[in-house]
Amino acid sequence: MAVPTNAADALAWTQDAMNGRRYIVDPHVHKRLLDRNMTFRSIWYAIRNATTCVAYAPDREPLAGGTSWRVTGPDFAGEETSVGVETFEDHLGSRVILITVF
């Protein structure tokens, strides 16, 4: 399966990878969570309950040769939270890297 090239497929891919625990957390995410006084639970809920997904151009090249997206949804407290992700595929199947939290 090729990496997603449209928002609907990217959102489904990201949600499936998160539900299947097929995700990698970039160290930058931990820094952003601390900066914003948030927990990982916020990311999990925001992706699970996502209302939008749009193409995203991070400051660096894709880490795994995938496509990058900005997924936005309410976290467990109802606050809109956006997460930068990279969708990619490897020997384990469809996966996602959590890049940043906006």
Description:
30% of the residues lie in helices and 34% in strands. With 102 residues, the chain is α+β, with helices and mostly antiparallel strands. It has a single domain, classed as YaeB-like fold (2-Layer Sandwich), CATH 3.30.2310. The longest helix has 13 residues. The relative contact order is 0.27.
Topology:
Elements: H1 7-19, E1 23-25, H2 27-35, H3 40-48, E2 52-55, E3 67-74, E4 80-90, E5 93-101
Parallel strand pairs: 1-5
Antiparallel strand pairs: 2-3, 3-4, 4-5
Could you list the spans in which at least 5 consecutive residues all have pLDDT below 50? none
Structural class, judged by helices and strands? Answer: alpha+beta
- The CATH topology turns out to be YaeB-like fold
Number of strands: 5
- How many structural domains does the protein architecture include? 1
